[in-house]
């Protein structure tokens, strides 16, 4: 109960701080452990239970591990990957051996520090939609090999823990031979036996049977490897990898996830218990120095390796920034080393503290990796030679941002014989577009000098093509200062910031979600043989009314109270007026709902539906009002309608 309560509180707090849950679990473990408040004393027993979290983690990793993906990224996976692990791990191991640590501790530390955080980095790439970018593919390739290396390290760890097993090289070869034989055996079973067994389980149409089957497969594979004297995690990984090629992969991963997350949370809390706050107070200077040196070394090494493999400088440098931290598999190695008696709690605490510190600064690095990369490149490389737009260019369109939307817009403007000039901060994109003969300028479109360099005073239209409402608002203010009469077209994700952008000076705002809805409606009406003229009139009216009919929707259970910028979400909400409602017999304008920024979009009265009812409409018993506005204002209006 103590551990679960602390885990819940820690994760909630760390989420608010935009920090990874792993750090929350570690912090809760530090606080609850023997070195903290001492609320949990039996750390060894808890780690035995939590070790199953590693089993499920490796099983999930195997499910997501794709051999075709490895082959597609083989140049990075088998080029930069092994070099990065060796050139990070061996110097760290050599340094620690020179400082007086045992060879086993030095090797474990080298292996742990060579790994980066797959969980944090991949989640960030997916969130930003950057998995298929140049730096996303390079980063994923290095992480794929690191995951493979982590599995190998887990396999070889018992060899270090059992020095009496003979010559270390022979023992390692025997262990790897067992692992290879196990791989072949599990491959055969996974290829021909498991799919049929899962199909039979699926025919039972029982969720609990399928969940139990998934748990059984993971634990059975772990038990087999443990019986052979290998790591339990290896068997789980191999079983997951075999099932990863089947069409049951997503269902199994979903079934395993709750057990994995709970046990992993306990595991990371157990790792945190190895760290004593007094230890940090004693060795804080070494911990800070170790974290700084590790991150700078990995950043430089990964950047140089990727550049050597032919990646662009920006791609290599940004990948280095993303992979500079330590990772969760480092905690796994350290915790298993402690359980095998290879290192004591103080040594483990220092290694964990260094890794935690690198992971703590990672979210800030991820958020600013693009800006940091550009800043470093501006210092090391000459900016692209993009002269200002000449005086003869007039009536052109300025495109702020030259991503996919900007490039598509440029193509159609060119087809219709309109001149266009783009502004972007991506050096690689600028170089490629310039070589293709397109007019593009390097710079930040919020700055006056960049807009003047692009000929804003002679432009006929400015288009903000990227989805960043705050950045678009800054561009609008700058444009208003330079050319108040210039029309500005802004792209946004939805209608959250539509009113603010209009007030800031945008001539038109195009919300992607609402436009997609309009296009879907138009196509549906056309397929129902609605005359084209009526469909076109509907589209024009919706845009002329700034999407009033489309704004707001019923959010359901997953209702967000605010967007990423902290602005309140607007929603639709139905209010039924029963016989005791205070508003019955009153006119809509008497209620003054619009003063609280709430609109009455629709009034349902029996079989009649009245869109945008008039202010003098008198409310009757049984009416249903559809309100639209911010959550708190809608709730207050409902209370006013019903209770007075």
TrEMBL record:
Keywords annotated in UniProt: Antiport, Ion transport, Membrane, Potassium, Potassium transport, Transmembrane, Transmembrane helix, Transport
Membrane-traversing stretches: 48-65, 77-99, 105-126, 138-157, 169-189, 209-226, 262-280, 286-309, 321-342, 348-366
Keyword Iron-sulfur: no
Protein species of origin: Alloalcanivorax venustensis ISO4
Superkingdom field: Bacteria
Topology relative to the membrane: Multi-pass membrane protein
Keyword Metal-binding in record: no
PROSITE patterns: RCK_C, RCK_N
Location(s), subcellular: Membrane
Ranges for domain RCK C-terminal: 559-643
Identification of the protein by name: Glutathione-regulated potassium-proton antiporter
RCK N-terminal domain mapped to chain residues: 394-511
């Amino acid at each position: 109960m103590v551990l679960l309560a602390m885990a819940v509180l820690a994760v909630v707090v760390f989420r608010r701080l935009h920090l990874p849950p792993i750090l929350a679990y570690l912090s809760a473990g530090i606080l609850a452990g023997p070195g903290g408040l001492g609320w949990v004393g039996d750390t060894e027993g808890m780690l035995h239970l939590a070790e199953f979290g590693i089993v499920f983690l490796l099983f999930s990793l195997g499910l997501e591990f794709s051999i075709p993906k490895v082959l597609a990224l083989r140049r990075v996976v088998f080029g930069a990957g092994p070099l990065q692990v060796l050139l990070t791990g061996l110097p760290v191991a050599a340094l620690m051996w020179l400082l007086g640590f045992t060879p086993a501790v030095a090797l474990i530390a080298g292996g742990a520090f060579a790994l980066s955080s797959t969980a944090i980095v991949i989640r960030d790439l997916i969130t930003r939609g950057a998995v298929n970018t140049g730096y996303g593919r390079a980063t994923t390739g290095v992480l794929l090999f690191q995951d493979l290396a982590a599995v190998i390290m887990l396999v070889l760890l018992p060899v270090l823990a059992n020095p009496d097993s003979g010559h270390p090289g022979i023992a390692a070869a025997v262990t790897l031979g067992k692992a290879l034989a196990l791989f072949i055996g599990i491959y055969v079973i996974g290829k021909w036996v498991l799919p049929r067994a899962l199909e039979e389980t699926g025919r039972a149409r029982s969720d609990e049977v399928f969940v139990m089957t998934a748990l059984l497969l993971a634990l059975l594979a772990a038990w087999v490897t443990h019986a052979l004297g290998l790591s339990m995690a290896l068997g789980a990984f191999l079983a997951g990898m075999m099932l990863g090629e089947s069409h049951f992969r997503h269902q199994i991963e979903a079934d395993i996830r709750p057990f994995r997350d709970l046990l992993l949370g306990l595991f990371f809390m157990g790792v945190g218990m190895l760290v004593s706050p007094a230890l940090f107070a004693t060795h804080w200077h070494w911990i800070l120095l170790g974290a700084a040196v590790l991150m700078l070394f990995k950043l430089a090494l990964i950047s140089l390796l990727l550049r050597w493999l032919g990646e662009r400088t920006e791609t290599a440098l940004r990948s280095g920034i993303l992979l500079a931290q330590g990772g969760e598999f480092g905690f796994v190695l350290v915790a298993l080393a402690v359980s095998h008696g290879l290192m004591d709690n103080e040594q483990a605490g220092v290694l964990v503290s260094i890794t935690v510190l690198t992971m703590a600064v990672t979210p800030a690095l991820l958020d600013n990796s693009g800006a940091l990369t550009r800043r470093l490149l501006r210092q090391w490389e000459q900016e692209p030679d993009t002269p200002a737009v000449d005086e003869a260019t007039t009536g052109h369109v300025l495109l702020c941002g030259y991503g996919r939307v900007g490039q598509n817009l440029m193509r159609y403007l060119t087809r219709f014989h309109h001149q266009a000039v783009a502004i972007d901060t991506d050096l690689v994109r600028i170089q490629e577009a310039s070589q293709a003969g397109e007019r593009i300028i390097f710079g930040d479109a919020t700055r006056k000098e960049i807009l003047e360099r692009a000929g804003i005073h002679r432009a006929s239209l400015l288009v903000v093509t990227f989805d960043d409402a705050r950045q678009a608002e800054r561009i609008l203010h700058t444009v208003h200062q330079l050319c108040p009469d210039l029309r500005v077209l802004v792209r946004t994700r939805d209608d959250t910031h539509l009113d603010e952008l209009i007030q800031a000076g945008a001539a038109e705002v195009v919300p992607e979600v609402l436009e997609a809805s309009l296009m879907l409606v138009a196509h549906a009406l056309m397929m129902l043989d609605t005359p084209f003229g009526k469909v076109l009139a509907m589209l024009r009216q919706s845009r002329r009314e700034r999407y009033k009919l489309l704004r707001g929707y019923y959010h359901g259970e997953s209702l967000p109270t605010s967007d990423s910028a902290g602005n309140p979400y607007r929603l639709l909400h139905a209010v039924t007026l029963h016989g005791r409602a205070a508003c019955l017999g009153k006119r809509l304008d008497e209620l003054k709902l619009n003063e609280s920024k709430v609109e009455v979009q629709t009034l349902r009265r029996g079989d009649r539906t009245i869109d945008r009812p008039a202010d003098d409409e008198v409310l009757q018993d049984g009416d249903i009002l559809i309100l639209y506005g911010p959550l708190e204002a809608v709730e207050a209006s409902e209370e006013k309608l019903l209770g007075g």
